[in-house]
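Retry 2 of 3 after timeout on previous attempt. Resubmitting structure tokens to design endpoint.
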């Protein structure tokens, strides 16, 4: 979960969601649905006493790779690091400042993007008119962090102007599909909201009732939105964009910030939904330059490390390495891992050799974290693709399925049917682990072609084999 959520939970009042009885398809009321109690007078007084809105971020389905280190060892990039020796102390004074969950007070070299977002959302602040933005850029360019920081600043300004505003962030790769996204939004308000038993339309009605009763607007941030669009289409986004039309100028509106690494993510929207996002609503996050990366890790080093534990030449080396990708997350992760290596050796400072060792252990796209989150059937599907595509740019789904049959036999896994196999391909495509597209001219008939967008097939195969563990013995029955 993003940092700050625990602090938010301590200060926010409990607002049980109203759960209006909604008839099922046969016109009957579900008797087993829990009744959410009406707010007591004390809750209402507390609600009025607390102006402004707390940030709520949906809990991830899988453990973050940037979790704080445990006493038993450190976990970085899905790897279990050996416990550090404390004979010579530690170079760290606050490792949390290097966590991906840490949200800086200021985002260096992103002032223009922050100003642009405030311009786009000015109608929301001044006239309760819903506003929208499409934020895009490569991994590690500050899209998610700046969007979170912007929402916090926006709610503060709304509070100063006497307007109620809330916001919630949902990662669409971790919450796959419309139903999962809606559930994450509702659970950000009430963790007791049932996981099952409510349709998407019923969940929307619950959200509408909550917003209207409390006379508040909400900004919903959909991170990795292309995963949602590939999985479920654009119906939910269209519904959000038209959410408060019956109450123009009032409360209960939904504003949207869509975040993607892909510049063409909006092409997945249908015409009705696309009309909400004009070209002027786009906010680009370019890759960081080498000097910008140096500024960023210099600030993080001052926050996370004891004075004198890292020299300027080492920070220069990290900046040079990360500048190939323009990825601040990569640079920070190298610094963190280099510090862990220094602690393992009981070194009083981080040296260049520690940086080189850290670089070898850190993949710039965070691929290993995503692979570890896969269940075994999807991992086997992906392994088969990696092996089949080694010497090709694309393979057909038919060729991939043939390879899948062999890998299932190799690992003693039951081969799933064709329909289920297609579902696995769709999920891997939505996660960005493969790219599936319909063949163009030159191929007889229509077929789906598969490619690997981010990592060499050989590297991917090795990572998956390690994750899946020991193969089934050839002699096993």
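Retry 2 succeeded. Sequence:
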């Amino acid at each position: 979960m993003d940092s700050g959520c625990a602090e938010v939970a301590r200060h926010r009042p409990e607002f049980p969601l109203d759960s209006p009885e909604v008839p099922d398809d046969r016109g009957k009321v579900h008797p087993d649905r829990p009744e959410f109690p009406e707010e007591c007078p004390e809750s209402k007084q507390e609600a009025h006493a607390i102006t402004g809105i707390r940030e709520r971020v949906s809990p991830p389905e899988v453990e973050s790779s940037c979790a704080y280190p445990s006493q038993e060892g450190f976990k970085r990039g899905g790897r279990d690091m050996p416990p550090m020796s404390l004979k010579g102390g530690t170079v760290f004074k606050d490792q949390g400042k290097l966590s991906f969950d840490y949200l800086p007070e200021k985002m260096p070299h992103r002032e223009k993007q922050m100003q642009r977002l405030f311009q786009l959302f000015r109608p929301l602040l001044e006239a309760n008119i819903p506003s929208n933005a499409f934020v895009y850029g490569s991994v590690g360019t500050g899209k998610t962090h700046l969007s979170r920081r912007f929402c916090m600043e926006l709610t503060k300004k709304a509070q100063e102007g006497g307007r109620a505003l809330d916001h919630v962030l949902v990662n669409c790769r971790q919450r796959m599909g419309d139903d999962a996204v809606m559930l994450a939004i509702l659970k950000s308000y009430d963790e007791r909201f049932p996981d099952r038993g409510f349709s998407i339309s019923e969940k929307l009605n619950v959200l509408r009732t909550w917003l209207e009763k409390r006379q508040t607007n909400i900004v919903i941030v959909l991170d990795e939105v292309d995963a949602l669009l590939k999985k479920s289409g654009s119906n939910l986004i269209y519904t959000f964009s038209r959410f408060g039309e019956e109450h123009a100028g009032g409360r209960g509106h939904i504003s949207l910030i869509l975040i993607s690494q892909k510049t063409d993510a909006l092409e997945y929207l249908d015409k009705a939904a696309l009309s909400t996002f004009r070209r002027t609503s786009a906010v680009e996050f370019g890759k960081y330059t080498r000097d910008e990366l140096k500024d960023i890790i210099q600030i993080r080093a001052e926050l996370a490390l004891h004075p004198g534990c890292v020299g300027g030449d080492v920070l220069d080396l990290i900046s040079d390495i990360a500048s190939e990708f323009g990825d601040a997350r990569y640079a920070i992760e190298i610094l963190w891992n280099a510090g862990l290596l220094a602690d393992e050796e009981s070194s009083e400072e981080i040296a260049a050799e520690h940086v080189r060792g850290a670089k070898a252990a850190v993949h710039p796209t965070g691929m290993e974290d995503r692979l570890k989150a896969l269940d075994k059937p999807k991992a086997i599907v992906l392994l088969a693709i990696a092996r089949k595509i080694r010497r090709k740019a694309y393979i057909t789904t038919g060729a991939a399925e043939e390879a899948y049959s062999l890998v299932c036999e190799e690992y003693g896994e039951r081969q799933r049917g064709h329909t289920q196999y297609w579902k696995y391909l769709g999920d891997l495509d939505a996660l960005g682990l493969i790219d599936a597209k319909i063949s163009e001219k030159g191929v007889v008939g229509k077929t789906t072609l598969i490619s690997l967008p981010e990592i060499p097939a050989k590297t991917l195969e090795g990572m998956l084999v390690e994750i899946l563990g020991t193969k089934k013995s050839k002699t096993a029955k």
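Attempt log closed. The first helix runs from residue 5 to 11.
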